[in-house]
Amino acid sequence: MDITNILSLLGGLALFLYGMQMMSGGLEAAAGNKMKQILEKLTANRFLAVAVGAAITAVIQSSSATTVMVVGFVNSGMMTLSQAVWIIMGANIGTTITGQLIALDVGMLAPLFAFIGVSMVVFLKAPKAHHYGEILAGLGVLFIGMGMMSDSMRPLREVPEFINLMTKFSNPVIGIGVGALFTAVIQSSSASVGILQSLAGNGLIGLGDAVFVLFGQNIGTCITAVLAAIGTSKNAKRTTLIHLSFNVIGTTIFTIVCLLFPLTALVENFTPGNAPAQIANMHTLFNIVTTLLLLPFGQYLAVLAEKILPDSKEEEQTEGLLAFTNDEFMKNNLQLGFSAVYLKQLGEEIGKMLYLAKENVDLCFQAIIDKDLVAAEKADEAEETIDLMNKELGRYISKILIHDKTGNDIEAIEEYFRVIGNIERIGDHAVNIGGYVYVMDKNDITFSEGAVAELRKMQEVCETAMNLLVNMDDEPTTWLSKIAALEQQMDDMTVNYRNNHIDRMKQGLCSEQGCILFSELLTDFERMGDHMLNIAQAYAKIAVV
Fold this sequence. Notes:
With 545 residues, the protein is an all-alpha fold. The protein has 2 domains: 3-317, no CATH class; 337-544, Methane Monooxygenase Hydroxylase, Chain G, domain 1 (Up-down Bundle). 82% of the residues lie in helices and 0% in strands. It contains 24 helices and no strands. α4 runs antiparallel to α15 (275-294), α7 packs parallel to α10 and α13 crosses α15 (275-294). The chain is elongated.
């Protein structure tokens, strides 16, 4: 084997991986959001969950992608650990479709697929056509790469050292270790299985030796989900552990069966003389049988994961606030179109931010009414948290909008971006109101009884509006109408109270500085109403997306 063959092998592998990525990306863009919606609405029916997991993985051609998606659902609280078990089992079945496609040997049509796909991408303007073009082009490039790898490996049949190396895979430990390590490195079980099929197709390895490498490849594919779980919740980490446990248990069972019984011979007899098909069939058999064997014990896999990764009090305290915005976690999941996955959790975090703002509005009014400096200081501290949440959530949403431009959920994400900005402004105006107490204390300023009564009425209306924002109990249109009515009431109150304020000035009931403060306070009050209405309008749009 000369340098030309080596370069051809590397080039073929590169094309195979790129074709796989292109095809997967096209499929994800064409139907990714629908697949996420199916997962989100999944029932507790284990058989349905397995079927859904298998179907989705068969479509996107990646069990790792499905598992990472599930990790996101579990991390956001949208899916329980028990539900995740069945999806992962199904994903392992669905991933075998790639090997079956390779076994069909449609390589002669690969250039045609690539040509049609690239033509659709280059010449057609419709986004859907681009997605379908990427699918076809990816499929074509995948098979072209497969052909290059296969051709480059043919000279290896003449290399005694390589043939001797292949025979060592008959040792289960070595075979499983090599398969797991290679798959972990390239992060694609489909690619590693494809390479194994090429070796077998060229007569370089028999099924008896290849099976152990194949079993190891199922373990190595878990590395992608493991990387995705970095920085996630404890349950998300447990999800990856379930994935790993499933493949380790399946490998253990099948290794013992292959050593004690003629399973390999039975699979060979099913498609005699077709080594790639034999490997594809063994891969499919491995995952289907393992799923059937472990299906009754799925709950115990979840329990095992909880035993291995138990909760700690310290972690319970630190996990939660903005944990899902972890940079490492986002980096490992940006490729998946994850807006749908985290939409619920994003909404919950923004709900927390809105509740803090509501509490702060009440606290700031109390500070100015009672001339309570301690309350004003507490409000300042709470505002720092609101500002931090605005910054982190804004950064998180920006990354989603940059990297994920597919799916209806993007519209909701955009509205959430507007919501957090308006919440932050409400917090600013509230702190302005509370901050006037420092000026009043320094300059010995007091408001008249009439002004204080108006402040209490402002506080009451703000509290009513903020409670409505935090607790959306009515139908969106009705709820929005209530907020709009309160905002109009705040506008009317601002006009009336300004007039009342002018009357008090004429009567000499307030000082010059007190007049200025109250006028500025009315401006803050009116602006808060505007931002409350903006939030309500955004939430009403989100409700119908």
